[in-house]
Design goal:
About 80% of the residues lie in helices and about 0% in strands. It contains 7 helices and no strands. The radius of gyration is 20 Å and the shape is globular.
């Protein structure tokens, strides 16, 4: 085996570690989650039946893999470039599909879904735009945003009408809190990106001045 082949085999082995497999499992679960919601809602009218419970369980498992893969990767030193890219993509696919489905089922206002999705994908694009100047790290607010978002979505996905109608008010209140944190942290990331871009531009100028 040549050195290039050995290097390629080593890279493949690092990709196929447990945290990355859990991340890929989360991506695979997304279409199943969507399909279960559709099965429960013929004509896009929710029945709050067995398939809705299955969808809720699938969402819960997917969210748990998000926490589990991160814990394992950090504790065992298995953080990879693939994981850094795939993990946030998996999160956005799961949360985005859930929001869109809830709006299609007329359980969540479209303006909430649009605001959250614009923020999520906008910040992702912003990260790539300023990556030549540096990396914008995840903030505590960003992590809190993810927790509150997933809690709100889970409350919506659970067939609340079959449990207690007032739980719908709780779900909406948590979703509004998630929306507020989402918008707030989005503004923080924009400010951080502008600072990063400004400092990155000043650095070459300072180097030219010293020559």
């Amino acid at each position: 085996m040549t050195s290039a082949e050995a290097k390629s085999a080593g890279s493949a082995a690092r990709i196929w570690n447990l945290p990355n497999i859990l991340t890929m499992l989360r991506i695979v679960l997304v279409p199943f989650f969507v399909w279960f919601l559709i099965l429960d809602a013929p004509g896009l009218v929710s029945q709050n039946g067995v398939w809705r419970w299955v969808a809720a369980a699938t969402f819960a498992v997917a969210i748990y893999t998000d926490k589990l893969d991160g814990d394992i990767a950090r504790s065992r030193g298995l953080v990879t470039d693939f994981g850094k890219i795939a993990d946030p993509i998996a999160d956005k696919l799961l949360i985005g599909s859930a929001l869109v489905m809830l709006s299609l089922l007329q359980e969540l206002p479209w303006w909430v879904t649009i605001l959250i999705l614009v923020r999520e994908w906008g910040i992702t694009g912003l990260r790539f735009f300023v990556i030549r100047y540096g990396v914008i790290p995840a903030s505590r607010g960003g992590k809190l945003k993810t927790v509150v978002q997933t809690a709100a979505i889970f409350l919506y996905v659970i067939p609340l009408a079959s449990l207690a109608p007032w739980l719908g008010v709780v779900a909406f209140a948590v979703m509004m809190a998630a929306l507020a944190i989402t918008v707030w942290t989005g503004g923080e990331y924009v400010i951080e990106a502008l600072k990063l871009r400004a400092s990155g531009r000043r650095a070459p100028q300072n180097q030219e001045g010293k020559q």
